[in-house]
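Help needed: design a sequence for this.
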């Protein structure tokens, strides 16, 4: 049998060398045992192997393992595939503390530990489970441009770039394109990056993040899309609980099953709740971090980790959201005091959409490519986006969003 992996630790005891590795994509540590009496050639190689080396081991698993750190593997042959040119900058046994910034810088090395690897195996499973669910629901996966001629929401939160003598933008979201698709497809989704030029430096914001984005046509109202969102989030959480038991145990977290149906709170009701908690915000203001956390505590006491906030004032929402008596047919989905999703019913009527764009202080000419699609039988439609990193944060009780993405991009980090 062959094992391939990296040397995380090594110790010698008489004529025996013990080498700890985490093979390939495995979560189980293996202690490679090399005995001088039984494999003298392998023992000579093992004595000289350096920490961090990539090795190939041939041998067998003994019927009884005495190692407390991982399953034992008796080596008959050992080959060093690659030797580090410098000492490892992090302790892969995790016996010494690692500064947060150092951890992010050397994330690729820390993936040789089961703790870091478990987190990103869960992330991969979240996306796999989401795809399987949406495909079974009849949604088609699409891919929309990430270099755009207009931002999805306008404003100053777009990254500009020079595009052959013209100004272009990195996509804030696939919003405009997935709406355009409603003229020819009724159910689409995309797992996609978002680029937001927001100068945030918080534990919940990134400048490049990922989302599960969905749009569906011929809806009767926003409840249609809320129901799909509730089903998906529950399916992901239950899927992770079922398929990632080993990873959850390694991370030492508990994932609670959501209470269903999710609570549905209108914006006005949320203001009443916050007032009772001594938090006062003006009607028409969006909820900030402090308000979201306070509401999360109240809802937790009511038995809800997940809950919708609906019917925000229209002035707080983008132009493409349908307006209704000064309010909006919109919603946010919060998870333990953090917004993880936003969505609603879109304005599908051409003339009303132009009015909305102008009311937001934008120029309809900048959105002609988008508006064109609304001339040809656009059905009522709606959708949402779920932030992958935010969902992981709350599901796994992680404090900083940067931990949930391999190479975080924020106002400070552009490399690695």
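Sure. Designed sequence:
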């Amino acid at each position: 049998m062959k094992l391939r992996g990296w040397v995380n630790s090594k110790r010698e005891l008489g004529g025996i060398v013990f080498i700890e590795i985490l093979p390939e994509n495995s979560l189980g540590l293996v202690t490679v045992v090399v005995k001088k009496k039984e494999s003298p050639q392998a023992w000579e190689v093992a004595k000289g192997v350096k920490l961090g080396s990539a090795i190939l081991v041939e041998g067998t698993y003994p019927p009884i393992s005495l190692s407390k750190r991982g399953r034992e593997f008796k080596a008959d042959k050992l080959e060093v595939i690659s030797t580090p040119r410098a000492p490892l900058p992090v302790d892969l046994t995790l016996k010494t503390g690692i500064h947060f910034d150092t951890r992010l810088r050397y994330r690729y090395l820390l993936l040789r530990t089961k703790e870091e690897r478990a987190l990103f195996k869960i992330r991969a499973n979240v996306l796999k489970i989401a795809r399987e669910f949406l495909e079974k629901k009849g949604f088609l996966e699409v891919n929309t441009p990430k270099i755009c001629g207009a931002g999805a929401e306008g404003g100053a939160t777009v990254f500009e770039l020079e595009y052959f003598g013209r100004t272009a933008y990195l996509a804030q979201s696939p919003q405009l394109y997935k709406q355009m698709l409603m003229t020819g497809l009724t159910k689409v989704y995309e797992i996609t990056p978002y680029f937001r030029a927001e100068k945030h430096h918080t534990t919940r914001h990134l400048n490049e993040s990922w989302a599960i984005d969905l749009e569906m046509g011929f809806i009767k109202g926003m409840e249609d899309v809320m129901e799909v969102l509730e089903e998906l989030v529950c399916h992901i959480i239950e899927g992770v609980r079922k398929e990632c038991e080993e990873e959850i145990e390694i991370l030492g977290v508990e994932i609670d099953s959501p209470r269903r149906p999710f609570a549905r709170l209108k914006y006005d009701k949320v203001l009443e709740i916050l007032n009772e908690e001594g938090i006062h915000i003006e009607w028409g203001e969006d909820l900030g971090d402090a308000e979201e956390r306070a509401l999360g505590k109240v809802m937790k006491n009511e038995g809800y980790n997940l809950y919708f906030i609906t019917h925000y004032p229209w002035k707080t929402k983008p132009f493409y959201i349908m307006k209704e008596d000064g309010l909006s047919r919109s919603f946010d989905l919060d998870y333990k005091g953090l917004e993880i999703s936003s969505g609603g019913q879109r304005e599908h009527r051409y003339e009303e959409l132009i009015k909305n764009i102008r009311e937001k202080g934008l120029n309809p000419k900048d959105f002609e490519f988008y508006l064109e699609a609304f001339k040809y039988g656009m059905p009522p439609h709606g959708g949402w986006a779920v932030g992958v990193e935010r969902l992981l944060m709350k599901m796994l009780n992680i404090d900083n969003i940067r931990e949930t993405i391999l190479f975080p991009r924020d106002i400070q980090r552009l490399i690695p």
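The domain at 114-404 is CATH 3.30.930.10 (BirA Bifunctional Protein; domain 2).
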